[in-house]
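Quick one, T. Sequence first:
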Amino acid sequence: MLDGGAPPEVIKRAVTFQQRWGGLVLPPAPEYEGGPLILEAGFPEPGPSGEWYFGAGSVRATVPYEFVVGPQNEFGIGTHVWTVLHATVDGWVESVALAYHAAWTARRVTRVRGAEVDDIDLDGFEPVRAAWWCGPDGVIAIHRGEAELLGDPALKVTRVYEGVTLDGWED
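Structure tokens:
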């Protein structure tokens, strides 16, 4: 164990994160109060189940959580209890880029909040990224992280981007 009790492999994950992403300034994300401003590794902390996570960067606005990288390099929000937003940091960065692409090219963007999010019809849509669905004439982003973390279903948000294709975004 190193100072602070963090196992060496957790320190190594934080250093690897910092080497890859440290100093990257992101544009504001459409949700989560804009997301982190600058990606940078914070000091590792233990979670309630003994897993270790570390901060992923400074917040852009005052929020009741921080942006974190989880034990399997997931990107999420929380403090000692946290919620995964994307399976990887790459997924978060790509999702922010996709949101800008969708907003720029959409014919219309509709924002839906709270209980109405559960009524969004995803028939004809296929999952393409964490939180993203692609259909014949648009894409849908579903954001449930804050609602899950804070236990408030009213915080669920969906953005429907009509007239958007994902040409060039496929794997």
